[in-house]
Design a protein that fits this description.
This protein is an alpha+beta fold. The protein is 18% helix and 31% strand.
């Protein structure tokens, strides 16, 4: 199955959102899909900043995924939870 749902915890959004993704999507495309459901709805846009995606962990300190790898290569599976957040481009 190529299409599957991911749980998105977007920084400063009080809701966890279910986002449909494909194994062939890049992490950058997944971040954009998550942003589409949160930015301008529950989260303020932050122009000039970029989106990062990391796996959700108990201490919220996992390293972010590279934006150009695929969802499949990141090892994400159905209903895995990810954190999406804005950061400075040089970070």
């Amino acid at each position: 199955m190529d299409n599957f749902p991911i749980l998105s915890r977007f920084q400063h959004d009080c809701h966890v959102k279910v986002v449909d993704t494909q194994a062939s999507d890049t992490i950058a495309e997944l971040a954009a899909a998550c942003a589409h459901q949160s930015v301008g709805v529950h989260v303020k846009d932050q122009p000039g900043k970029i989106l990062r995606v990391r796996p959700t962990t108990d201490d919220d300190n996992a390293e972010p995924f590279s934006p150009d790898i695929t969802v499949k290569d990141a090892g994400l599976a159905m209903y895995d939870c990810i954190d999406v957040y804005f950061t400075d481009p040089q970070s």
